[in-house]
Predict the structure of Holin-X, holin superfamily III.
Amino acid sequence: MDNQSANTNPLFEKIESFTKTSLTLFKLSSVEKSADVVSSLITRITIIVIASLFILFANIGLAFWIGKSLGEYFLGFFIVSGFYIILLAFVFIFRYKMIKKPISDMMIQKMIHEAEIDNIIQNN
């Protein structure tokens, strides 16, 4: 009976070591994927903010230019804002296809690498 107990003790130690190693690997993998997603989002947000500032100042200039051409500056601002209300309606109608789905797909792609997707498909 002691021989059997002596044989199972190293087995339990190996199982415990394997479990700890697997847990550590899972934690490191999660940290890597989270960092990848966050860094991608921060990069995109920075680009969007800079592009938004450019667009803002370009639109102010365009509104003044149209207003000067029409003789009244406020008309230029009304025309530019009319363009944006039409653009807002367009984006609102197609918000799922244009915004939600691409962002969801990007996050999923960042969280699950291509190799992992292939493994999931092959295992099913």
